[in-house]
Amino acid sequence: MTCCSYLFRKKGSSSSSTTRLPAVDIDISEIQNVNFYSYKELRIATEAFSPANKIGQGGFGSVYKGRLKNGSVAAIKVLSAESRQGVREFLTEIKVIASVDHENLVKLYGCCVEENHRILVYGYLENNSLAQTLLGHSSIQFSWHARRNICIGVARGLVYLHEEVRPHIIHRDIKASNVLLDTYLQPKISDFGLAKLISPNLTHITTHVAGTAGYLAPEYAIRNRVTRKSDVYSFGVLLLEIVSGRPNTNRRLPVQEQYLLTRTWNLYEKGELERLVDAFLDGDVNIEEAVRFSKIGLLCTQDSPQLRPAMSTVLKMLMGKKEVNEENMTKPGMIFEFVEAIDEEKQKGKAEVENTSSLLTGSGKQDDSSSSGIATSFATMTFTSIYDRSN
Ligand SMILES: Nc1ncnc2c1ncn2[C@@H]1O[C@H](COP(=O)(O)OP(=O)(O)O)[C@@H](O)[C@H]1O
Ligand SMILES: [Mg+2]
Fold it and tell me: Name one GO cellular component term (predicted).
C-alpha cells in the first residue's frame, strides 16, 4: 500500500520523506487512518477502470470493484469532474470521514488526490445495497429477523453519526442504495460525509432529486434546511421500505398506492397497518413488531422536524425499550404533494411554474449541532427540477 509520502513525489522522482504538502500547507501526518493511494495503483486495481469492473454509478461519480496491492477487495469511487474540490477542502473532509469507525458504517480505506483525481477507496461489501437486493431483483430472501436487524443496525449507525461522533455528522443522503450489506446481511451505511466533499458551487440537489426525491424531508428539499432531523425523515422512509419491501415511489401501482408514505398513513388511519407488511414474508413475521416499526416510520416522517424523534429515541423504540407514542402523531410531510398541488395549478393555467421557483430557493441553515460546514450548495433548486424528475 502506498503511504502518504506519495503525495509529495514529483513526477518521475522517488518518494520523499516529508509529511507536508507545501502547496496547501497541510500536515498529512495529522490525517490518521487514511491510506493515500497512487492513481497508478487504483488504475491497476480496476484494470484501467474497465466497464467490466464498474459496480455502480451515483450522483457523485462511478464506483468500481478492484483488488488492491495488499490483496483486499475495495469499492473505488471516482468522484466526477464537477465534484472535484481543492486538495485542502477534500482532505479536511476526508479527515472527518476517516475518524469515524463503527460496525454499521462502511469503512473508508483511503483516497487518491493526485492531480485532478479525487478518488475514495472503501471496503467492498459482498451483498450490495438494499436498493439492489430487498427492493430490486436478487435471490436473497429477507426474513423478518434479517429486516429487523437491518433497521436496528442502520439506526445504530445513525445514532453514532448524529450523537456520538464529534463534530456530529449529518448524512444528508440516507436511502436504500446507501445501505450496504455484508456477507451476513449486516448493514453498513455508506457515503456519510460525502455531501460535504462536493464543491460548494455545485448543486448536487439535482442529483438527489433525480433518483431519491422520496427520501428528502420537505424542509431540506424546499428550503435547503439541513438538520439531523432531515436524516431522521429519510430513515423513516427507509424503515417503511424495509417493512413493506417496496420502494417509496412506484408509478406502476394504482394511483392511491404509488407513494409509500401516503399509503402508510391511509392504512394507519384505517387501523390496518398490518396490510403494509411485505406479502413475501407470507405471515412469517412478528406482526406486532412490524406494525410498531411502521408507526416509528410515521413518527420519523412527520412534516415538522421538531416532532420527529432523535435517532437515539428511534433506536430505543425499535428495540422495544421505549414506548411508541402515537398520540398527536401528524401526517407525513411529502414534497410530491406540494409538487402535485402546483401541478394542478399549472394545469388550470393559474400558476407560472418558473415563478414558483422563487418559493423554493432560500438560504440554507444548518442544525447548530451539526458539523460546521457548507449549507450553501443546494439553494438553487427550482420547482422545475423537482417536477421534471418526479415523473
Ligand atoms: N463499498 C461498496 N461495496 C459494494 N458496493 C458498493 C460500495 N459502494 C458503492 N457500491 C455500489 O455502487 C453503487 C453506486 O454507489 P454510489 O455512487 O454511492 O451511488 P448511489 O448510492 O446513489 O447508488 C451502489 O448502489 C452500490 O451498488
Ligand atoms: Mg452511495
Answer: membrane
Q: Whose Cα sits closest to atom 1 in ligand 1? A: 124
Name the residue with cell 448543486. 203
State in Å: Cα 76 to ligand 1 middle: 9
**Do 36 and 19 touch, CB atoms closer than 8 A?**
no
Active site residues: 173
192 and 201 in contact (C-beta within 8 Å)? no
Q: What pLDDT was estimated at residue 367? A: 39
CA-proximal residue: ligand 1, atom 17 (nearest): 58
CA distances from 83 to 43, 177, 195, 302 (A): 20, 20, 10, 32
C-alpha cell at 24: 496547501
187 neighbors 275 (Cβ within 8 angstroms): no
CA torsion sign for 335, 195, 391, 139 is negative
Question: Under a CB-based contact definition with an 8 Å cutoff, are residues 210 and 388 in contact?
Answer: no
Q: Which residue ranges have their beta carbon within 6 Å of ligand 1?
A: 55-56, 58-60, 63, 75, 77, 106, 122-125, 128-129, 132, 177-178, 180, 190-191
Residue 129 alpha carbon to ligand 2 centre in Å: 9
Torsion of CA 329, 330, 331, 335, to 10 degrees: -130
Atom of ligand 1 nearest to the CA of 59: 22
> Tens digit of pLDDT for each residue in 162-209?
999 988 888 988 999 999 999 999 999 998 877 666 544 444 444 444
Q: What pTM did the predictor assign? A: 0.82
Bond preceding residue 167 cis, omega within 30 of 0: yes
Cβ neighbourhood burial of 190 (10 Å; 0-12, 13-18, 19+):
buried
User: Which residue numbers belong to the known binding site for ATP?
Assistant: 77
Q: Cβ contacts of residue 328 below 8 Å, gap of 6+?
A: none
